[in-house]
Amino acid sequence: MSIGTFAIRPLDPLKDADLLHSWVTHPKAAFWMMQDAKLQDVEREYMRIAAHEHHHAYIGLHDGVPAFLMEKYDPRYVELVGLYEPEPGDVGMHFLVAPTDRPVHGFTKAVITAVMDELFADPRTRRVVVEPDVDNKAVHALNEAVGFVPEREIDKPEKRALLSFCTREQFLAARGVAV
Fold first, then answer.
1. Phi and psi of 81, rounded to 5°?
2. Domain-by-domain residue ranges, the chain?
């Protein structure tokens, strides 16, 4: 059964602010840590990301409709500075699936797979790095399903996080593709 087609486009901080605000303040997005954000806070945060040389945000489309948020960053300069020793080709990633009243079985795994496909489409990407909250068990399971291996817990200013890595080979193996 096909879940549909996915595409990713650059996020427009002003045009997408209303949509993003509804996503990041939804109770299901508690680990995004923007529950009390006002619309202007969301605009400001994504304007900051848009202006950052090493941090980028994208809207993921499912069959042409906005369905998820993806952030890509260089961990040498953003999020993980001083918390681990980056390797050449490391790319940091965050993703958030839009809340829905009609969940589709397997959709979130399809989203993270589309995100990883997008990141590994760049031949310079050798390894994807994530740092979800240690208490976010659902995302740990998703990460493991696409090949992430936890390394250790780290303390970030805003949370205790589980530092995990996924190489291109681990991702392909998790998808059942011979490497």
1. -60, 125
2. 6-174
Q: What is the pTM of this model?
A: 0.91
Specify the higher pLDDT residue, 27 or 9. Answer: 9
Please list, in sequence order, all residues whose beta carbon lies within 8 angstroms of the beta carbon of residue 44, skipping any fewer than 6 positions away: none
Superfamily of segment(s) 6-174: Gcn5-related N-acetyltransferase (GNAT) (3.40.630.30)
**DSSP per-residue string spanning 74-137:** -TTTSS-TTTS---TTEEEEEEEEPP-SS--TTHHHHHHHHHHHHHHTSTT--EEEE--BTT-H
pLDDT, position 141: 93
d(CA 120, CA 169): 10
pLDDT digits (tens, 9 = 90+) for 15-50: 999 998 889 888 786 666 677 878 888 889 889 999
Vertex 62: Cα angle to 49 and 26 (nearest 5): 60
Which residues, in sequence order, are CB contacts of 121 under 8 Å at separation 6+?
Answer: none
